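Justification of computing resources. Each target in the renewal requires a structure prediction run like the one illustrated here; the chain below, 108 residues long, is used simply to show the kind of job we budget for.
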Amino acid sequence: MKRSVSRLTPRGRQWLATIQEWERSGLSMREFCARRGLNAATLSWWRQELKGRREEQRQDRVQLIEISAGARADNSFAIELSNGLRLCVPMRFDAAALKELLGVLRLC
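Resulting structure tokens:
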């Protein structure tokens, strides 16, 4: 599994800064690399690598929603996912099973 952007190596952070500098420059990738003495293929590879890590990081985020206070009559709580699915979970639940279920639902 790839590491997230926040866990980059020093080399990865250096390439991230270089990519951000290139994006702000307004230059084509070839022109930017020629001026900096960089290999355009390497810059392109790092750009794709870091883009994939950012996408992974976004998928791992949990979207919080407002819940109303007060216990439900059946002593459970509800989880509403960003895709509209709503789960009712008992107060005492198997955390591993819930994690697995949420992983499956993320693919829906």
